[in-house]
Amino acid sequence: MNPALWMPLGMVPTGRSVLLRRVQTGHGLSSRLAAMGLLPGMRVQVCHNDRNGPVILGINGSRVMLGRGTANKLSVEDTSETGI
Amino acid sequence: MALAGNPNSGKTTLFNAMTGSRQHVGNYPGVTVEKKEGRFKHKDTELNVVDLPGTYSLTAYSIEEVVARNFIINDKPDVVIHVVDASNLERNLYLGIQLIELGVPVVFAFNMSDVARARGIHFDLDMLASLLGAPIVPTVGQKNKGIDELVDTAVRVARSGTKPKPSDIHYGDDIEKAIEAIRRRIDGQSGFTDDIVARWTAIKLLENDAEVAKLIQDPDIHKAVEAEQARIEKILGDSAEMIIADRRYGLISGACQKAVRSTCETRHTNSDSIDEIVIHRVWGLPIFLGLMYLVFWLTFTVGGPPMDWIEGFFGWLGGKVAGWWPTGSDSILQSLLVDGLIGGVGGVIVFLPNILLLFLAIAFLEDSGYMARAAFMMDRLMHKIGLHGKSFIPMLTGFGCSIPGIMATRTLENRRDRLTTMLVLPLMSCGARLPIYALIIPAFFPAAWHATMLWMIYVIGIALAIVSAKILRSTLFKGESVPFVMELPPYRLPTLKGVLIHMWERGGLYLKKAGTIILGVSVILWALTSYPKTETVDTTLSAEEQQFIQLSNTIAGRIGHAMEPLIKPMGFDWRIGTAMIGAFAAKEVFVAQLGIVYSVGEADDESEPLRDQLKANYSPLVGFCIMLFMLISAPCMATIAVTKRESNSWRWALFQLGGLTLMAYVLTLIVYQTGSLLGIGI
Asked: Tell me: the pLDDT tens digits for B476-517?
């Protein structure tokens, strides 16, 4: 776990598979995200990410879209880059 | 029996399969969440089933979740069927674990089990059932498979009252210690005689559940909860709610590892390839616009012939009823039946084919999964006006009719977003306004302009909605926009039954409106335009002039005259004024009313004489101003009533009425005055 490698989810390009590290949203939203399978430690696929507009994530087979603002409150680690 | 499950888990399909059309849609008391109930007989058992709102969890994040869990806690259904999308087991069971925690008898319906199998997922159902402590029945809702067995099992569980043991869900020693400490404090307090409820309450308190916290008065308990949360955070390094969520997933994946074998991950591949085209940065928008165009085109071309039939029927009915009286008779009852009732209601029912087709198309787009993609694409645009993509779906529905559109704002979690969407929604030109345009445009404009004029009116409405939403969001409803989180369901081919049921849920409302409000208003308007009768009319005048004098003297005529100074600056005379009063009851009444005023008998949007009359009396500029005013002004009574119900306050409903009418007045005034000054269209 090296926080220096973390970045906001909104910056991850389409097609990458990343590890969710930290969720910095209000209490209500973080438990909603957890219920949808977005919990630190989970692996997330970035299915669609243009430079603006919402981001589409693949979580365990389901597709969830997040507004860009929310997406940037999630820190992820691009493990495909570090080879883990 | 209650049906619980994630959105898009096929819950509603199962519900439809069980109950067919024997459904009743109402509201949960005090909130505007739809409550769907149905009754059916299975073998010898009479069953009552409630389709709970689709939720991911039983926290207090949205009203739907609160409603679902309150129903389970307070109404104590004999059995809860948890509809699980079997191809996405882990996330679906997150809700399942919470149902078990509530200590109710549960049956799991592993829905779409065929899809799961096709995708290479194999379940050891017996082992899973014993791990979960509740029976599992595989079902395929779309193909009516497994439903008998599911209901059999549910009835058996309900009769025996077998519940899974909530204590089987073990959150690890540290959390369990905290739960136990809080539970002991709650236990014995009034209302918490039940061990299971006490444990559940303790867990919810640790999870920072605002709704449950409100129920606990004792400040000592709140202090104890805070202390335990702080302790957990210190030991485990994360907030209690996150740890609890993490443990739930841990339990689920533990069970899945033992009982589920997945050979490959292929879900969504087809959907993903469709999405690559449909939500493409360049192609996405044109495809969306094309689909919308197709929807409107379908609505009006396919709707045409049945409209003619209905029109013909009402014309025939009117003639038949009129024939009961001798020709030339001046019976009040005849006039009431033919001009008032048949004319008024008939003029509205004529649009039923249009409305049903539009709702059919919208239901198809919704059930196929495309609507979520439309929300995705619109988010960019909606974000700029301070709303998000989800607001777009109610607005689209508003093109059909504002009422279901306003009801569809229920999917918006945030009150500010909801109110903004609700208030600007009548600017989406609804189907009832179309007859007005259809009457006016051909009367004043050359054929080559028709399509462009119609398009322009719709675009003006959309542009005004955007501007108004922006203004509302930066004044009355200031504040950060809510996080946009929405699932994209995989594309599926909608079932005919499902689409028809959805269509009818909304189309039925329109019919109800025709049968109640419009029926009543037709009678009132008929009376207003018929009384008081002028006794002494100069019989040397032509029949038309006689009628003109008659009408001027009626209540409607007098109101119109009284309004004239106010509407004169917009280019409207008293006759348009009387029609405007009718339009407040329902926009489509405008056409009928104008017809009565011009006394050309049965008026509808195809009536040539009325168009000639209009052309003789008004300039194209006035024609355009009529359309502009009708587009923006006072939403119809039914819309006001629905806004009142959905916003729970007369204040917003009246604000909507006043604001839109003022906007219509000012804009029409400006257009008319500028137009007259520059000499355009006079």
From this structure: 887 766 778 888 888 888 888 888 888 887 777 767 766 777
Answer yes or no: are the C-beta atoms of A17 and A80 closer than 8 Å.
Answer: yes
- Peptide bond before residue B305 is cis, with ω within 30 degrees of 0: no
Task: Give how far the C-alpha of residue B155 lies from the chain's centroid of Cα atoms, to the nearest Å.
Answer: 33
Q: What angle do CA B407, B410, B414 make, to 5 degrees?
A: 140
Mean pLDDT over each residue of chain A, to the nearest integer: 84
Residue type for B481, please? S
Cβ pair B390, B375 in contact under 8 A: yes
Measured between beta carbons, which residues in chain B are less than 8 angstroms from residue A53?
A: 376-377, 379-380, 383
- Predicted local distance difference test score (pLDDT) of residue A83: 43
Q: How confident is the model at residue B288 (pLDDT cuts 50, 70, 90)?
A: confident
Contacting residues for B618 by C-beta, under 8 A, at least 6 apart: B444, B571, B626
Q: What does the block give as tokens for B155?
A: 């009835």
Question: Using one digit for the tens of pLDDT, what is the confidence trace for A38-49?
Answer: 888 888 989 989
Mind listing the domains of chain A with CATH numbers?
9-82 (2.30.30.90)
Whole-number Å distance between alpha carbons of B401 and B619: 30
With bands split at pLDDT 50, 70 and 90, how would you rate the model's confidence at B603? very low
Half-sphere exposure of B591 (CA within 13 A, CB side): 31
pLDDT band at B561 (very low <50, low <70, confident <90, very high): confident
Interface test with B, best of A27, A29, A45 (most B CBs within 10 A): A27
- A36 at B interface, C-beta within 8 A: yes
Query: Three-state SS string across B145-194, please?
Result: ECHHHHHHHHHHHHHHCCCCCHHHCCCCHHHHHHHHHHHHHHCCCCCCCC
Contact at CB, A39 and B249, closer than 8 angstroms: yes
Does the CB of B15 have a partner CB in chain A at under 8 Å? no
Measure the CA dihedral B457/B459/B461/B463, to 10°: -150
Q: Return the DSSP state at B431.
A: G
Cβ neighbors of B433 (< 8 A, separation 6 or more) are B587, B588, B630, B631
Most A CBs within 10 Å: which of B91, B244, B393, as the mutation test of the A interface?
B91
Residue of A21, A24, A29, A32 to mutate when probing chain B, most B C-beta within 10 A? A32
Under the banding of pLDDT at 50, 70 and 90, the label for residue B274 is: confident
Task: Give the C-alpha separation, B120 to B520, whole Å.
Answer: 60
- Judge whether A44 is closer than 8 Å to chain B, CB to CB: no
DSSP SS3 for B283? coil
- Does A39 touch chain B if contact means CB atoms closer than 8 Å? yes
What is the distance between the alpha carbons of residues B227 and B246, in angstroms, rounded to a whole number?
Answer: 21
A-chain CB neighbours of B62 within 8 Å are: 32
**Tens of pLDDT, residues B342-363:** 777 776 677 778 778 878 888 8
Residues of B (476-515) whose Cβ lies below 8 Å from A = 481, 483-490
Q: What integer pLDDT is reported at residue A84 of this predicted model? A: 42
Mean pLDDT of B312-320: 85
- Burial (0-12, 13-18, 19+ Cβ within 10 Å), A26: exposed
